[in-house]
Amino acid sequence: MEVKVFNVKDDINERIDIYISKQLNISRSLVQKYIKEGNVSVCNKAVKSAYRVKRGDEIKVKIPPPREINILPEKISLDILYEDSDIIVVNKPAGMVVHPAGSYGYSGTLVNALLYHCKNLSGIGGFLRPGIVHRLDKGTSGLLVVAKNDKAHQELSKQFKERKVLKKYLALVHGTFKEESGEIKVPIGRSIKNIKKMGVLSKKKREAVTIFKVLERFKNATLLEVTTKTGRTHQVRVHLSFLNHPIIGDSLYGRKDKIINRQALHCFKLGIFHPTTKEYLEFESEIPDDIKYAISMLKEGKYEK
Questions:
Q1: 213 with 180: CB under 8 angstroms?
Q2: Terminal C-alpha separation, the chain
Q3: Closest C-alpha among 96, 142, 140, 170 to residue 252
Q4: Measured between alpha carbons, how far is residue 254 from residues 25, 210, 246, 290 in Å?
Q5: Residues classed as catalytic
Q6: Taking a C-beta distance cutoff of 8 angstroms, is the pair 133, 157 a contact?
Q7: Are 119 and 131 in contact (CB under 8 A)?
Q8: Exposed, middle or buried: residue 45 (CB in 10 Å: 0-12, 13-18, 19+)?
Q9: What pTM was computed for the model?
Q10: Which of 110, 152, 188, 246 has its Cα between 20 and 30 A from that of 253?
Q11: CB neighbours of residue 264 within 10 Å
């Protein structure tokens, strides 16, 4: 069993479950589970989740070994736009998680579906993320490229790192944009207030660049074409919220909405260089029905913010 030790030098006055979740970059609920199981102590004494961390505390966290998890192939329908011996390009529906994770469970994901569809996926991402080169949030729909072998995975990862991959999104946002286009160049990192969120107020921020162009304006909303130059977690959602134009339906960075039950964000265009032939390939997917419905409501003037 691994043991992590933290010697607190500042008078933080923060709940211990929040403090540990930030230090270990794990969910608060998992930390609370450790505390309930007696795997967290302060100066060798057991504490509760509400304990306030203070200067001089020696915090010990015992991390139990991971339980054996079998990621099983599942017969789940896939919308495949392209496939060969190296890669698969799929159109992920909103509501599907890309890979198994403790917070989302270990079934019903894109990885489960891919393992049923093809027997060979790259192993670089580990047993929870075979073939996964990049991700889309659960509530975001659109295009993803998946690697079938390690060579393809390495080449695609290099393209993402060198910003050679084209990713364009459609985003339906609150409010009316005055500008026709623009660039958002604001570094983002893990939120200092909520570990589930990313934000511009963070101690460990990384460069993030998003370009937007207005496609259509409505009474209380705007349809944008968004291009990402970097691939930070929640980047488009954070940047648009930073501009006070959160994505419609985004309950994490904005609010829930009646006209769509997820964030109205869709990756409609993906351009890559084939990892073996080096040929440039570009793929497009149609706007999902739920976003089409939201747009139609806006056009008919039936949406009020």
A1: yes
A2: 51
A3: 140
A4: 24, 18, 5, 18
A5: 137
A6: yes
A7: no
A8: exposed
A9: 0.77
A10: 110
A11: 28
- Matching residue, tokens 């017969």: 75
Residue written as tokens 């107020």? 201
The answer to whether the CB of 225 falls within 8 A of the CB of 213 is yes
**54 SS3 class:** coil
Tokens describing residue 151: 């060579």
Query: Which amino acid, one-letter code, is at 226?
Result: V
CA separation for the pair 178, 87 (Å, rounded): 41
Structure tokens at 108: 């019903």
Cα separation, 265 vs 228, in Å, equals 13
pLDDT in tens, the chain (305 residues): 789 999 999 888 899 999 998 888 787 888 998 999 999 999 999 999 999 999 999 999 998 876 666 788 999 999 999 999 999 999 999 999 998 876 667 889 999 999 999 877 877 666 677 889 999 999 999 999 999 998 999 999 999 999 999 999 999 999 999 999 999 999 998 887 777 788 887 777 889 999 999 999 999 899 999 999 998 989 999 999 999 999 999 999 998 898 999 999 999 999 999 999 999 999 999 999 999 999 999 998 877 65
Which residue is listed with tokens 């393992």?
115
Cβ atoms < 10 Å from Cβ of 149: 19
* Beta sheet of 45-46, edge-to-edge order: 2-7, 58-63, 40-42, 45-46
CA distance to 3, 112, 145, 178, per residue, from 101 (Å): 22, 12, 20, 40
Q: Sketch out the chain's domains with CATH numbers.
A: 2-63 (3.10.290.10), 68-162 (3.30.2350.10), 165-282+297-305 (3.30.2350.10)
